[in-house]
Amino acid sequence: MRTLRLVGFTLAALLVLSACSDNLLDIENPNQQTSESFWSNADQAVQGVNAAYEPLTYDGMYNRMVHAAQDIRSDEAIADSPFPPYTNADQFSLPATSLMPTLIWDQSYQGVYYSNQVITNVPSIDMDENLQNRILGEARFLRSHYYFKLVKLFGYVPLLTEEVSDPGNVSRPQAEPDSVWNQIIQDLQFAKQNLPESYETDVGRVTRGAATAYLGKAYLFNERWEQADAQFKEIIDSGLYRLVDNPRWNGDLQHENNAESIWEIQFSTEVGGDAVGFGGVPAPNWGEVQWRSITFSPLGYGFSDVLPAQSLFDEFKQEQTVNGNDDPRLGATMFYNEPGETVYGDDFQQVYSGQIEAGENPIYWRKYQRDTPGPEQFSGSGLNIRAMRYADVLLMYAETRNELGDQATAAEYIQIVRDRANLPDRESEFASLSQQEMRDRIAIERKLELAGEGKRFDDIRRWGWLDDPQRLEMLQENDPAFDGFQQGRELLPIPQSELDTNPAAQQTCGYGGPLGDCS
To answer: At 422, is the pLDDT very low, low, confident or very high (cuts 50, 70, 90)?
Structure first.
């Protein structure tokens, strides 16, 4: 089995640079590839779609910033950092000039641009039809995924579906969110029809299961319950996925690409990148390692910029297993003070003795951290990011079942997830809940199962909690940074660089612009 390791930096640079036609000397190099000469055979089609995967590993995406943007703004994490993008995101006070929205915006659109090049050019290549359709399915999935991030985080974004000859010099009006969602759904429908269930090699490429799961998620975010329900049921009935035995396996190095993983973003310390130390100058493909681990690290083992909220720890402590132990997902999610706990091979109680003796409760993220000493200390990590896993699908299916009035089935699938954590069987109890009570139960189960995976803020937004004074008060109790929330700040600001270079760009209402509804 070979894991997909991307060759995209050099090719991606070529795909961007070759699109720029202005040259002061107006001299053509006959040996240099251009966008016109590149797309001529199947190997180049594969290279092109490989380039479209590459921005997933960039700093603005799964490397670091997307995690921070999603987790910090939820009530399950807090920023404890001198880095302004993190503290400002935590307090809902990001300026349009901030590095966080700028990187996420720019690098998402790099992904859109590379995907559009594939979608535009590959149909004209004389090649095996099945491979051609698969590559187009990959590109349509990837484009949908970049837009998924953009519309969730910014709301009003330019919807570019064709190759742009000069991406740095074009007026790009912003589309209504509904139009972007419609395009996402169309792309995922196409991808689902043209992607394989699996690959013999190149683990990490998107599959039919990934397209189906994200199609269901897109329907879910738009409250199209029946359509979402059908997609999740298709995943469940496929028999291709299952919950792994130990919840810790969904964030460690030893169990990557396991049976629960529907799609993972692939990272490696063995392919490019700066695997020695943060102080070195990153190689061109430095994205082959990710920096989430050092950003969310325990104190003393990285930057420790993002910490779990005490309220999340307390929530895990509300219910014990059938054996009277802590929920094992607590230990999978956090390092915390318990007998025998180690952090990067060191005794936890000894390392944090000062805090413990002072009566504090030191807690740090464990998910996506190594359990033993390794090169990730103060360096880039090779841990894959589990972008979509089966437990999430089961809980989303429970949600659609509840919205369709079937609380009994919702309870069944909630308990399936709870069983893996060895929690008491409460299926009958949950089956008797009202629809609203079941919504509250699902919120608890999703928070605990998916903690630290960037799902919580999306959930509280789509459930309308930020518009509900009572829910907002609860969020403020969980995380006082929500005191800084105001309507419209559920979105990130449109980057100032976009406003400066795109004549059609406008800011959203949460940041003083005309777009959106902040009434």
So the answer is: very high
Instruction: Convert the pLDDT of each residue in 93-117 to its tens digit.
Output: 999 999 999 999 999 999 999 999 9
Give CA separation, 432 vs 318, 419, 423, 435, 442, in Å.
Answer: 21, 19, 19, 9, 14
Q: Provide DSSP, 280-329.
A: SPPPTTGGGSBSHHHHTPPTTSS---EEE-HHHHHHHTTS--TTSPPPHH
Q: Which two tokens stand for residue 4?
A: 């997909």
Residue 453 has φ and ψ, to the nearest 5°, of: -115, 15
**Tokens at residue 502, please?**
């795109």
The answer to whether residues 75 and 481 touch, using CB atoms and an 8 Å cutoff, is no
CB 454 within 8 A of CB 70: yes
What residue has token string 């996402």? 184
Torsion sign over Cα 216, 459, 92, 82: negative
- Find the length of the chain: 519
- Closest among 98, 13, 17 to 58, alpha carbons compared: 13
Helices (H) and strands (E) in the chain, counts: 22, 10
Token pair for residue 413? 């699938």
Reported as a pLDDT band with limits 50, 70 and 90, residue 519 is confident
With tokens 């690959």, the residue in question is 199
Which tokens sit at 356?
A: 């413990």
What does the alpha-carbon distance between residue 382 and residue 151 come to, in Å, rounded to a whole number?
A: 28
Whole-angstrom Cα distance, residue 341 to residue 336? 7
Q: Can you tell me whether residue 401 is helix, strand or coil?
A: helix
CA–CA gap between residue 242 and residue 164 (Å, rounded): 42
Rounded Cα gap, residues 376 and 253, in angstroms: 11
**Token pair recorded at residue 254:** 């030893």
Question: How many CB atoms within 10 Å of residue 238?
Answer: 12
d(CA 259, CA 57): 22
Taking residue 18's Cβ as centre, other Cβ atoms within 10 Å add up to 16
**pLDDT tens, residue by residue, 292-324:** 999 999 999 999 999 999 999 999 999 999 999
Q: With helix as H, strand as E and coil as C, how does 187-228 read?
A: HHHHHHHHCCCCCCCCECECCHHHHHHHHHHHHHHCCCHHHH
Determine the average pLDDT of the residues in 122-151: 98
- In our burial notation (b when 16+ CB lie closer than 10 A, e otherwise), range 150-186 reads bbbbbbbbbbbeebbeebeeeebebbebeebbebbbe
Location of structure tokens 């929205």: 101
Give me the amino acid identity at 201. T
